[in-house]
Amino acid sequence: MFFDYDRAEFRYTPFPIGIAKPVMPDARYGELVANFPPVELFESFEQMGKKGRKFTLSPKENAKRYNDFVQGNPLWRDFHTWIKSREFVYGALEMLAGHGIDLGYRYVPPGLRAVRKAKSVLRGKRAPGYVPLEARFEFSALPADGGNLPPHTDAPTKIVTMILSILEDGEWDDAFGGGTDVNWPKDETKSFNQMNRVATFDEMEVLHTYPFTPNQCVLFVKTFNSWHSVAPMRGPAGKLRRTLTINIEALA
Q: Of 5, 66, 133, 208, which sits most exposed with the smallest number of CB within 10 A?
């Protein structure tokens, strides 16, 4: 068990979003910070033709470098195993349900699924649906001098997103920016965005900002209006806003 959600607090409009802080014991958190991969392994959004200014090391964009690093580091290998576990995925969903955010997903063991399916067939009914879920994480780094993520709502396959800050105490100045903004479109016809159109900053109002601070996890539910962003930062060249972005997604 890596995360502690006991101090999680949520806001519910315009979509469910909250923060857990501190999210893990200081010693364990310090190990993650100290073992963050070197930026030389990352790829930039500009190289991939994506909007925003960000570096990423992920199982989707640069899988070999990502897998080599994670599997070659015992700490990250254990973290990866935990993120892929049923304990993490359904533990996070149970925590959300405990805060009034019940997404309706439940783990059903394979044997029980088979029994339910057989009973439904015998009764001439349609078998109850089961949507398999999976979690993954990527390493992210935004340069403090202008790094940004434009307003977006996340891909339709995503269910929950978690943003774990990776920084030492005293490393980051609030004047740099780097917080996670909760956005709302100035034009209400843009509020529905299930398919994740990327907007511009001037199209949005900022309703709330979660500052970028150590040992915190900002987590939110993907909805049709889960607009969020990181505004262009104002820090010095060479400094990075480092995070882990963890997604729980539907496989079917």
A: 208
Predicted confidence (pLDDT) at residue 222 exceeds the cutoff of 60? yes
Of 105-114, 212-221, 238-247, the poorest mean pLDDT is in 105-114
Which helix or strand (DSSP H or E) is residue 27 part of?
helix 26-34
CA-CA distance, 155 to 98, in Å (whole number)? 25
Place of tokens 């963050």: 36
Q: What is the DSSP letter of 193?
A: -
Angle subtended by helix axes 26-34 and 74-83, to nearest 10: 110
* DSSP E strands, 81-152: 133-143, 149-152
From 150, 155, 160, select the one nearest 50 (Cα to Cα).
Answer: 150
Least confident stretch, 96-105, 118-127, 212-221 = 118-127
Strand order through the sheet with 228-230: 149-152, 228-230, 180-185, 204-210
- The answer, yes or no, to whether residue 165 has pLDDT greater than 60, is yes
